[in-house]
Design a protein that fits this description.
It contains four helices and 16 strands. The protein is α+β, with helices and mostly antiparallel strands.
């Protein structure tokens, strides 16, 4: 059983803020920002929009959460490697181990961009439940924000199940594991919010069935606990 950690600043379990070098993160993702800002990312007639005209091949999917949120994930081996390199260069493993007081290795399961400019309602949910034993995490790193907007941030339930708000800040990432119930705050902006995100966690096979329930949702490819890359959509297998 992994130790559950209480964050007094957030008044919540298993959620932590991490310092990230923003200039490094921005440099890594800058080749893709023009496309993420200007290209359509949602097609109501397609479950997955293949973004072939980016410097790397991506796939864009929308969970249809009463807004225009898109998950832009790797659609090729090269794109998957790009997210792995970001994970390593930003030192996500070491920094998470420090704040969450973990003593086991962490691996990246998936990397993706989250892009959105409006949301009409909340959608509270868990990424990882108690069966994951706080051995898997989602990290959200803001790359582009509308600094004038006081909405569009992260709502969550604290330990008393009361609504709280975490405000995204450049140079800060939030990562959260089991028990953390959260939602995007409803908003509308003329400037897109763009995040670099990862799912990651233990290499422990015993927890994988619970963990992969979330890991498999936010893209067409992911890395299993044993290091193998799985491509869920047969259409894209040839690109890996």
């Amino acid at each position: 059983m992994v130790k559950v950690k209480f964050n007094y600043a957030l008044n919540a379990y298993n959620a932590f803020e991490i310092d990230i070098d923003y200039d490094t993160a921005f440099t890594l993702v800058s080749p893709f920002l023009e496309g993420l800002n200007n290209r359509p990312l949602i097609d109501p007639n397609m479950d997955c929009m293949h973004l072939k005209d980016f410097p790397l091949s991506f796939c864009s999917q929308s969970p249809n959460w009463k807004g225009d949120i898109s998950w832009v994930s790797a659609a090729s081996k090269e794109a998957f490697t790009f997210f792995e390199q970001c994970f390593e260069k930003l030192e996500i493993e070491r920094k998470t181990q420090e704040v969450a007081e973990l003593d086991f290795p962490l691996m990246m399961y998936s990397g993706f961009f989250v892009v959105r400019s409006y949301g009409e309602d909340t959608h509270f949910h868990l990424d990882f439940d108690d069966t994951c034993d706080n051995q898997a995490f989602t990290l959200m790193l803001p790359i582009q924000l509308d600094e004038k907007s006081e909405s569009g941030h992260l709502l969550y339930k604290d330990v008393f199940f009361a609504d709280q708000k975490y405000t995204y800040t450049k140079g800060k990432a939030i990562t959260f594991g089991s028990r953390f119930i959260h939602s995007t705050e409803p908003f509308r902006s003329t400037k897109k919010f763009i995040f670099l995100c990862f799912t990651y966690g233990t290499t422990n096979a015993d927890k994988w069935d619970a963990i992969k329930t979330t890991v498999t949702k936010q893209g067409i490819s992911y890395k299993s606990y044993d290091g193998s890359v799985i491509v869920r959509d047969k259409t894209f297998e040839r690109y890996f």
